[in-house]
Amino acid sequence: MKKSFTRVISLLLCLTLFFFADAALLNNASAALLSPSEIVDAASKAFDSAEDIYQKITAMINEQREEEEGEGDGFEPHAPDIGESEKIIEELEGYIERLQNLISDISSLPDETDSSEGKTVRAVKDYLAMLSDIVSVMAEGSRYGIDLFKTMEAMDIGDGGFSSISAMAQTCSGAAQKALSIMEPVTPPVFLEATHGDLMTHIYEFEKFAEDFVYAANLDDPLRIYSSIYRLRRINMMFGKCFDNLNSDSEAQSAQMKAHLNGPVMVLHDELSANLKLLKGGE
């Protein structure tokens, strides 16, 4: 009985593998049967479907760079509209999904030959992959920006007005825990990994400071309290430097994306636009 059951399972697995293999072969065979004009039409359709994404992200990146270049040096965070930022992220994620679908749609188109059609298909695939990479970086950076701002808000303990040293110490402790709850689960964009590591180090230092500050306040020990306040000033300075570095890294990435988009991507976009028209008979 057990052997029969095992044979049935093995047979089902084999049938499943054959089904998916046959499906892949059918897709490739179908693509291979396409005429040159049908191949060009399919590639052109994918290219045209991504045009609004290309125009939108080009406008977004150029506008962002103009704002950054107009702000000058120094990190002066301003309160973003979280709701609006989340809408932008949702829009970017929609673009990523669309681009991945377009890449999947033309994945089986033949591009191995050195014919005009093969070269064009390869170029369209490369173009869509470039756009997808850029939009992915934009979405990751935007998500991180929201988390970073929420962390900064959480750690803002104000300029005073505490009823007692103990109340101030408890506020610092609560701020540290809230900041950690926001940032510990966060996976930073690749271009911010190093500075994110520095930020987390400073948040853990702030957490340890808060623990010691609460202890000093409970003991009502003036020396420990003054030492804690001095540590807080030093930690604030480290945070300020870290935020400057995060801002610099973000601006550098933004400048790099603008150069990439307005350079190789734009050249490829314009060449594809012209070549597809020629291949379609100058429509």
Describe the structure.
The chain has helices at residues 2-32, 36-49, 51-71, 82-105, 116-154, 165-183, 193-219, 222-279. With 283 residues, it is mainly alpha-helical. The protein folds into two domains: 1-33; 35-279. Helix 6 packs antiparallel against helix 7 (193-219). The longest helix has 58 residues, at 222-279. Residues 1-31 have low confidence and may be disordered.
Quick overview of this protein structure:
The protein has 283 residues and is mainly α.
Helix content: over 70%
What string, H for helix and E for strand, traces the elements in order? HHHHHHHH
Radius of gyration (CA) equals 28 Å
Report the mean per-residue pLDDT as an integer: 85
The overall number of domains is 2
* Overall strand count: 0
Report strand %: under 5%
Q: Report on the biggest sheet.
A: none
What is the 3D shape?
Answer: elongated
Number of helices: 8
Distance between the termini: 67 Å
Extract low-pLDDT stretches: 1-31
Structural class: mainly alpha
